[in-house]
Amino acid sequence: MKKSISHRLTLAMVTLAVGGIILTALLTNLALDWNFRRYLRSTQEAQNRRIVETLAELYSEATSWLAVTRSTRHVGTTTGTQIRVFDMQNQLIADSLTGMMQSMQGRHWQRAQEQRGNTYSYPLFINEQRIGTVEITHLGQVGLWSGEALFFRRTVNQTMLVTGLGIILIAALAGNILSRRMTRRLENMTEAAEKLGRGDFSARTAVDGEDELAVLGETMNRMASRLEEQTALRKKLTGDISHELRTPLTAIQSFIEAFLDSVMHADEENLQAVLGETHRLAQLVNDLQELSNAECRDRDISLNILNLNSLVALEAERTRPLFRQKGIELVIEDGGQSIECRADELLLGRVLGNLLVNAWKYTPAGGRVTVATFSQDDRAGFTVSDTGEGIEEEHLPYIFERFYRADPSRSRTTGGSGIGLAIVLELVQAMGGAIDVESTPGQGSTFRVTLQV
Ligand code: ADP
Separation of 359 CA from ligand 1 center, angstroms? Predict the structure, then answer.
């Protein structure tokens, strides 16, 4: 493939150069020919006029017919032409080539010249009175290229040939260099693609310039980065999952071993602790299942126009007992106006539910959680604000990542696995929406979900 691209490019450049040169040579020669003929015709015309003037002068001074014939022959010989003079009755009265006319060859030659259009006729005036017609035929290589003109043309053609060869050489060189550069870049890309194919996602191709190959290289590099990120994420996820599973499992195992060794009594309190760990395990498995569902984009999402106010009201009613129990005030602010958005009712319910549970988890008793709906241009959505502990700025960029907890020890007490917000993000994005967060440590957080109308 490499060879064929390089060869084809060089061949194309050379063919183009050869074609261009042939066309230029042809057009130049045609133009030279045409201009030369024009020039020849105009010089002939001028010469003819001078001949007619000289004849008129000589005739006006002539004293005998012999003198007229002699003058005609003289002018004809000196100008390289055959001059024939006719009177008003079209009778031939003088011919500069009388001798030649008598030979057959001469007649043939003259007919040929006449057919070629080299014979010109002019009226002959003496003392402003027309006395007849002069016919002038140019002898020799009339209308053809003269020696000098031929030399000129040859020089032009030779120059063009030399220039042409130079251009072909340059075209071949340029084609070769260009194609080599191109194939080198393609080779780089192929090498990187092969590495990626073998699973080495750190492979990148050099991006040089801004042309289509550079764009392709950039796209490839972006794809490689994405693959690298995904692989790292997958590895991290596997590590995180095993870690998350190990913690409650170890606890359960320790309890059971202690029961068996009679170090601990399997009384209600201890069994409750074991049950708590199994709940943690079950919760984790549920969360993982939900995350997997959320990530599965090809599952059915039915985007419909929803009434946000009713959805918020429904979800608030569902979680209100939780808030009441903990002594947190739950406030709904919908501004009294009905707001609609395009979303999947079930998924959006889960999003709001997760955000409300988080607000409940991270807000102390006596605090307040507010759900407010909004609509802005072609967007609508809701915010969930709390007066809880807030999130340190350094953690904000990561809280939507799987298993990320701003405060692991605290999350453990709240039973969080660090998957809730990852699920929320997946669901919101699956519905074509966006989520962002603002938080002030010690004062509270506001999560904002924006959807299409
Ligand atoms: P978790 O199950 O630990 O709550 P999430 O994915 O829901 O996991 O949240 C990730 C982390 O973001 C939490 O561990 C917590 O540190 C932080 N977080 C989420 N919501 C809030 C909130 N409303 N207030 C303060 N911190 C929050």
Answer: 8
